[in-house]
Amino acid sequence: MKNRKRQRENRRLKHKDERLEKYDGWGHKDLTPYNAIRQIESNGRAEIVLK
């Protein structure tokens, strides 16, 4: 039997995934890790972001 409270907790955790920033700690644009993660998540089908 499914527990509604547990389902809600899991859904909240799923939506709290850490966002990958396009800027590094100093504010400079660094798309290398951003593009790498997008490629991994899409099995190489994601377009490379240059801007």
What order do the helices and strands come in, and which of them pair?
Elements: H1 4-15, H2 32-41
Could you characterize the architecture of this molecule?
The chain has helices spanning 4-15, 32-41. With 51 residues, it is mostly helical. The protein has a domain at 20-51. The protein starts with a helix and ends in a 10-residue tail after the last helix.
In short:
43% of the residues lie in helices and 0% in strands.
Main features:
elongated; 0% strand; mainly alpha; 51 residues
| Secondary structure tally: strands | 0
Uncertain spans, ≥5 residues at pLDDT below 50? none
Give the structural class: mainly alpha
Beta-strand residue percentage: under 5%
Rg over CA atoms: 16 Å
Helix content: 40-55%
Shape: elongated
Mean pLDDT: 83
Distance between the termini: 48 Å
Main sheet attributes: strand count, strand direction, barrel closure = none
* Individual helix count: 2
From N to C, what is the helix and strand string? HH
